[in-house]
Amino acid sequence: MIRPDAASARAQLERLAAAGGPLGPWPIARGAVDAASARAAAVLVLFGVLDDRPSDRAAQARAVSRDLDVLLLARAETLRAHAGQVAFPGGGVDPGDDGAVAAALREAQEETGLDPAGVDVLGPLDPVPIPVSGYLVTPVLGWWTRPTVVAAVDLAESVEVFRVPVADLLDPGHRRTTVFRRDGQTWRGPGFVVSPNGRDHLVWGFTALVLDRLFDRLGWSEDWDRERTVEVN
Hints:
By secondary structure, this protein is α+β, with helices and mostly antiparallel strands. It has four helices and twelve strands; from the N terminus they run αββββαββββαβββαβ. The strands form two sheets. Strands 1, 2, 3, 4, 5, 6, 7 and 8 form an eight-stranded mixed β-sheet that branches. A four-stranded mixed β-sheet has the order 11-10-9-12. It starts with a helix and ends with a strand.
């Protein structure tokens, strides 16, 4: 049986996917991406209901129950790109993939061991340009109807997989403005501090932007201190 609040969260996510449209603006984007030559990628933005580790706070949005969560992972520190960053499961669209949805599910299975059969795909969102890497990334919204045990499959790529309560992400005390400086320029973006398994992780960059824009579009965001900053590199 699905509780009314969980059903509402899923219904809101379904409506968002059906409505389409860009999630932007993207404050740390640099340059432009040529759609004709861009490399296609996809990530799985997978929401579900935690069984045993709910948030200890109540979110302001009624649709956000204490046990509503999203799946994230921590990249390996040895990677050449995005080392140590928290991300959604995902990666490049391979020639054998039947589009962005298939790529997101395949990558999530390869990275976390989840069973794609337990995921209801709610729909893809508009692709997001990532000028620094030349990718067009399609976020694919999913609902974890039949969750399975997940863990890092290839430690050379990901070192930790965790489910984070959405109420914790929305907690104003966990919000930050990230500051990225390079070549005399400064970019600011949203950030989230999460502590799965007792270890702090900073969610920033593309992943934080998608979460921030999703929460805004869904009406789940809570007021937070945007002057509370953290430097990233």
